[in-house]
Write a structure and sequence with these properties.
Layout: E1 2-5, H1 7-11, H2 15-27, E2 31-36, H3 43-53, E3 59-62, H4 68-75, E4 80-83, H5 86-89, E5 97-100, E6 107-108, E7 113-114
Parallel strand pairs: 1-2, 1-4, 2-3, 4-5
Antiparallel strand pairs: 6-7
The structure holds magnesium ion.
Length: 125
């Protein structure tokens, strides 16, 4: 199984969970990809942070924009994609299971409602 993990708002929100998940996945022969929209020049900072959290991975993949993550999910045959941003998830094809991570930028914890843009929600009213 090939699993892609977004960095900002996903791994950074739950580093302990993603440590356990990444270690277990790699121990079982699965591949872990850190799929990020960060600039590649920030890779050394990310490598250091991931090491500090104990997160294991096989490769980095830098996306050129939010929608580009879907291209990489398809190109790399990603089976599961953990991500927090709708704009990154919406273009992903149905072959990839998407796991949306809640955080303060995409979920109103006071009112317990998802925050969305008009383009990310289809209204039935
Ligand atoms: Mg993110």
């Amino acid at each position: 199984m090939r699993v892609a993990l977004d960095f900002d708002g996903t791994i950074t929100e739950h580093p302990e969970f993603f440590r356990v998940l990444s270690v277990a996945l790699r121990a079982s022969g699965s591949e872990v990809i850190v799929l990020t929209y960060r600039h590649p020049a920030l890779r050394p900072v990310m490598v250091e942070q991931l090491a500090a959290w104990g997160i294991e991975y096989n490769r980095f993949q830098f996306a050129r924009n939010q929608e580009d993550k879907a291209f990489w999910c398809e190109t790399l045959s990603v089976d599961v994609f953990f991500e927090d941003t709708d704009a990154c998830l919406m273009p992903v094809t149905s072959r990839t299971l998407v796991m949306k991570v809640r955080n303060a930028k995409n979920f109103d914890f006071t009112n317990r409602q998802w925050m969305a843009t008009a383009s990310s929600v289809k209204s039935d009213t």
